Amino acid sequence: MRSFSQIYIMAVFGVKFRLGLIDRVWKLQLYSVMGNTLNNIDGTVAVRIGGIADHVHVLFTTQGLVAEAEIIRKLKSDSSRWINEHRLTVGRFAWQDGNARFSYSVNDIAQIIRYIDNQEEHHRRFSFREELDKLLQHSGMAYNGYNLPDEPA
User: Are 97 and 84 a contacting pair, CB within 8 Å?
Assistant: First the structure.
């Protein structure tokens, strides 16, 4: 029998020091670069990418042929290289260390896409930390006593 696998993952990660460096002028190009990176990883397909100036949400499917950590490493590396090569920020652009990843059922995908598409509206009411706390709580992950990457202890 052939092996079948399709895993939906939403990764969330921020700009280093949570600086609002992702500009509206070029953010769609950035999302396209990120989508191309995902689509060029064996068994991985970009579904939706969005966010605000200081962080992104990346929804993708994977067949599990490449480790999630390697997918995120490649995604962050390629996208930060593109930003720096095009000199889109003053100084060197970098993503924060770490990320949060959440898995979803195919039945949840339409709702997750709406959630990603509504980040601007969502963050008029909630901070990044409040959003992450809510995502961690909803997923059932233990998260007491954590610091966000690049956040002072």
Answer: no
3-class state of residue 24 by DSSP: coil
Query: Which tops the pLDDT comparison, 146 or 7?
Result: 7
Q: How do strand 100-104 and strand 55-62 relate by DSSP bridges?
A: unpaired
Q: With contact defined as beta carbons under 8 Å apart, do 150 and 96 qualify?
A: yes
Angstrom distance (rounded) from CA 67 to CA 65 = 7
Which range of residues forms the domain containing residue 135? 7-107+114-139
Element (H, E) at 10: strand 7-14
> Structurally, how many domains does the chain consist of?
1
Residue 151 has pLDDT above 60, yes or no: no
Domain assignment present for residue 148? The answer is no
**pTM (two decimals):** 0.90
